[in-house]
């Protein structure tokens, strides 16, 4: 009897040993497999600045790694767990997102620019132009961190946290005027983080000179976008959001639409308070101060007013008035005053902008009284003057000629009559973002070419 018990114990002991050996063997094999994967560069070698990216194919482990990288990035009340649990975020699960192993398919990578922390590259992913954001290994953030005596790896980790924060926040605050995240790469191990990167839509930088050279219609679009962003940030799913570093550099233009692209300094929630004196908002750059009421321990609409004032200072105040149609100036002035003096909230401003857009698109701003088309123009259907008699004019939509938008042919003729250089114009079937026709003005006339998509009008006198 005792012998049988002894033999059973030996068999159980051997079974346990065998199971442990099998598990250890599988772990070693998997570890070697993923070490090999992590050694492969997503850029088929090094990128133009010597950066390497390591793949992560197990989406199930993303959330734990994300939380570790975000441990020190919870300033401004950002609740990472809340965002992950509540936001419509397809970060770990969407089959459409570009993953680490897809980075080899990003072609024609070229360096674009750098900021304090990040370097931005341009690439082409399956015919789609994209932007790649990663840590700038030669950037000011890393250099100043190392100069303070910290290890390079630790400094890179701190910079990588900012990119991971952007991966989370940009998707949590998804909006038509927020840059779209197309994919990301988070490294496979917490000890090797030399590969944090994010892929987004590609946009053009918002240059002040470029803005001032735009037509009023395009500048109105940007002002409308700014107003829409601020209205949405005032009542997002995560409460009131603040652009703590509201500058033109935080935005890009994608197909003419303004989009927020840098969310490093986005704050969540209005500041806390005990009394009204705690809620004074002051803009030292313009010596403007406004007191805000303290309600239920919170400075009421503090972030919204801060965003409005800065949005006006960097965009609307100087973009919207210049070149606005005369009949729309009273509404434009109300919008500008709402931004400059905080006399309106973001919703009221958006409603005014919608009214301006409606009047502009419908042509009602022209205030006509049964006006007839001028008989001083000869009409040539299906005709064009391609590459001929083009001239430069102010606020043109074209860099090589004089191109404006018009509600109809009558408005185009009015614009031509007001221009001493204009002899005629070509109306195309192309339209602007508001649906207005594109008109190309000409300083001369010759035998026209046939074009079924255009019509030519020539002044007789």
Q: Share of helix among residues? A: 25-40%
pLDDT < 50 runs, ≥5 residues: 1-7, 18-95, 189-193
Q: What radius of gyration results from the CA coordinates?
A: 30 Å
How many beta-strand elements? 21
Number of helices: 11
Strand residues, percent: 15-25%
Shape: globular
Main beta-sheet strand count, sense and barrel state:
5 strands, antiparallel
Structural class: alpha+beta
Instruction: Look at the structure and give the mean pLDDT.
Output: 77
Distance between the termini: 125 Å
Spatially, the strands of the biggest sheet line up as: 1-2-3-5-4
Characterize the structure shown.
The chain has 461 residues and is of the alpha+beta class. 35% of the residues lie in helices and 21% in strands. The chain has helices at 2-39, 62-69, 80-86, 140-147, 152-172, 208-212, 216-234, 302-319, 329-341, 346-362, 409-417; strands spanning 106-114, 118-125, 128-135, 181-185, 197-201, 204-205, 241-243, 251-254, 257-260, 266-268, 280-283, 288-291, 294-295, 298-299, 377-380, 383-384, 402-406, 424-431, 437-442, 449-450, 454-459. The strands form seven sheets. A five-stranded antiparallel beta sheet has the order 1-2-3-5-4, with helices on one face. Strands 15-21-18-19-17 form a five-stranded antiparallel beta sheet, covered by helices on one side. It has a three-stranded antiparallel beta sheet with strand order 6-8-9. A hairpin with a 2-residue loop joins strand 2 (118-125) and strand 3. Helix 7 (216-234) runs antiparallel to helix 10 (346-362) and helix 8 (302-319) crosses helix 9. The longest helix has 38 residues, at 2-39. It is globular. Mean pLDDT is 77; it is low at 1-7, 18-95 and 189-193.
